[in-house]
């Protein structure tokens, strides 16, 4: 064991963690890193947001490591529900998504940390421990984006003014927002005073622009960007 790994073990020893990711192989690797290198205990694993919420509330972990893109309830929505139910619980987002919309949606939802997949194992363990202590922790690229926002610089202005899915028309974005809110086509048509056929046509365009196959995938993308409830 290297000195860095030994330090990481001291920093994570005894922590209880729930892992949330829809890729079993990734969860297996994270479990090994947390337990064998970090000395933490993975008390539960989930492949979707709904299961993650149930496990976190039942098992009372110190930290939930949360992916964003998952089937059913997204990581953003799961984080929001956990933050409402357990404000003291540390949620660390671990994701491939480094776009502004995902970063700020996660922070608004109550995530205490946001780091990208692929960083060094010791850095990940440091982030887990920091979140458990109640600290906010972000990867270098994410931290720079947040710093720019707080300082009001060009990056911050772009993030503040960014509109989710700029490739969509305002009407398409409005329909996607209602879709993410759980509304069926008939309800969307009623609220926007459109015909069901028009709503269906708009959704076809939305799916094509977002490069998703169906409603479920569109909802996941939308909620990651902070749309819906």
Primary descriptors:
229 residues, alpha/beta, Rossmann fold, Arc Repressor Mutant, subunit A, 2 domains, six-stranded parallel beta sheet, 58% helix, disordered N terminus
Unreliable spans: 1-10, 153-161
User: What is the name of the CATH topology of the largest domain?
Assistant: Rossmann fold
Rg over alpha carbons? 19 Å
The secondary-structure class comes to: alpha/beta
Give the fraction of residues assigned to helices: 55-70%
CATH superfamily descriptor of the largest domain: Response regulator
How far apart, in Å, are the first and last alpha carbons?
Answer: 46 Å
**Broad CATH class of the largest domain:** Alpha Beta
Based on the structure, what is the oligomeric state of the protein chains? single chain
Please summarize the sheet with the most strands.
6 strands, parallel
Number of helices: 12
Count of domain modules:
2
If you had to describe this structure to a student in words, what would you say it looks like?
The protein has 229 residues and is α/β, with parallel strands linked by helices. It folds into two domains: 3-151, Response regulator (Rossmann fold, 3-Layer(aba) Sandwich); 170-224, Arc Repressor Mutant, subunit A, CATH 1.10.10.10. The chain contains twelve helices and six strands. It has helices at residues 3-12, 24-37, 49-59, 75-85, 100-109, 121-132, 140-151, 154-161, 170-180, 185-192, 196-210, 215-224, and strands at 16-20, 41-46, 63-66, 90-95, 113-116, 137-138. It has a six-stranded parallel sheet, sandwiched between helices. Helix 5 (100-109) links the parallel strand 4 (90-95) and strand 5. Helix 9 crosses helix 12 (215-224). The radius of gyration is 19 Å and the shape is elongated. The protein starts with a helix and ends in a 5-residue tail after the last helix.
